[in-house]
Amino acid sequence: MFKSHLISMLVFSGIVSTIIAFIRHDDKAKIKKEGIKLFLYMSIGIIAGSWIINFL
Amino acid sequence: MRPYLIFLLSWLIPGSGHFIHKKYTKALVFFSGILLLVILGIIMEGKFFLPYTETSNNYGVVQRQFHPLLILGFLGDLGLGLFNVIVNLLGFAKGNIESVTYHYGTTYLVSAGLLNYLVALNAFDLARKGGRNNV
Fold first, then answer.
1. Nearest to A26 among B29, B44, B133 (CB)
2. How far B12 CA lies from chain A's nearest CA (Å)?
């Protein structure tokens, strides 16, 4: 399972974004929103960054 | 409880500072999340940073060279508190450079330590404010 870099990155993003969302907010709705936002930022940012690096 | 004591306790055991302030959901998330990162880091054959590299000269004398980047990694791993001690005592997280997931595992471990610093600081802040806004 963890031989895949993509899955390793997604699992990492999921755990880290959940913890940071819980640190930053107290309200459950805000935690959920922040968690999803952070997860998407991290995942999409890393995929886009690695795609750009591919051309260097 | 004094904020600095809460910080120390939260650093030693992730989530314990929030548990004391009756924020049980947060305490559970922090403890299980950081523990999960550590377990996955070990499974991926990552390693804990040492603040130095060891080289032996022509006479077989081992020399330790300290490096700023290694020291930063070491400080990151140190953030795991008791988890760091337990994992070291059990002999895990020695790292296998030949493993495909070695770098990911090392990143998981150091990130867990850095996140625990944030969690401990949050607990410290909570103790200073008196534990309002319970989840």
1. B133
2. 17
